[in-house]
Design goal:
The protein is an alpha+beta fold. The chain has 8 helices and 10 strands. The N and C termini lie far apart (64 Å).
Length: 217
């Protein structure tokens, strides 16, 4: 998941002397939210396509004060890009070397396509969110609870946290889900959300349905 293995190079970075309208047209053609500006090969910053749309004619250098300073290093990790996509409301991120040389870019679609191959997203299964105190939580214990019920873990991560609580989201196989639910509760975890058909709850619903029909006779 090293960034340098996913760099694309077909979207050009513009020289600071290039015209604003040229950069804007190419950004629209590619469908990307930002253009990247370099000077003698060194990355200078990014400008949003919507901002270029409203800018007067001239060179990109005249907009230097508006450059957004975001980029990712080519020896970084793909996971590091997620926060940048969100923080800067962008669908494309420039990749630079440690010497700040522009190397290429990452697109949002490429990253999502890569993550979609991981079992956390590709495998069918159940999603469960459990909560415990910050002092109590243990990934070792959580994995043990799931695997002791003969199920597999496809992914596990902290999805929310506060001063006195921690929520952990699990993607697990569909075996013995009711037993896993009960085991978590025995170990002091609160099951906050369940995205699967709980066999026990379905049985209770069926029995209640039969009871209603009995009362109608």
């Amino acid at each position: 998941m090293v960034i340098k293995d996913y760099i694309s190079k077909d979207y050009p970075a513009f020289n600071s002397s290039d015209r604003i309208e040229d950069a804007n047209e190419i950004a629209k053609d590619f469908g990307y939210s930002h253009v990247f500006v370099k000077k003698k090969g060194i990355y200078q910053g990014a400008l949003s396509q919507s901002f270029l749309e409203e800018s007067p004619e001239g060179s990109l250098s005249t907009l230097e004060v508006h450059f957004e300073k975001f980029a990712i290093l080519d020896d970084g990790n793909l996971l590091d890009s997620i926060k940048l996509f969100h923080t800067f409301s962008t669908n494309v991120i420039p990749v630079i070397s440690r010497m700040e040389k522009y190397m290429g870019y990452l697109s949002c679609d490429d990253i999502f396509n890569e993550f979609s191959k991981y079992p956390l997203f590709s495998e069918n299964g159940a999603i469960m969110i459990v909560q415990t105190s910050g002092k109590h939580y243990s990934f070792t214990e959580i994995c043990k609870i799931v695997e002791s019920n003969n199920a597999k873990i496809y992914g596990c991560y902290i999805s929310s946290m506060g001063e006195d609580f921690m929520q952990i989201t699990l993607k697990i196989s569909n075996e013995n889900l009711s037993s896993i639910d009960e085991t978590f509760e025995r170990y002091g975890y609160s099951v906050v959300h369940k995205y699967y058909d709980d066999e026990k709850e379905e049985l209770l619903k069926d029995r209640f349905g039969f009871f209603q029909k009995y009362l109608e006779f």
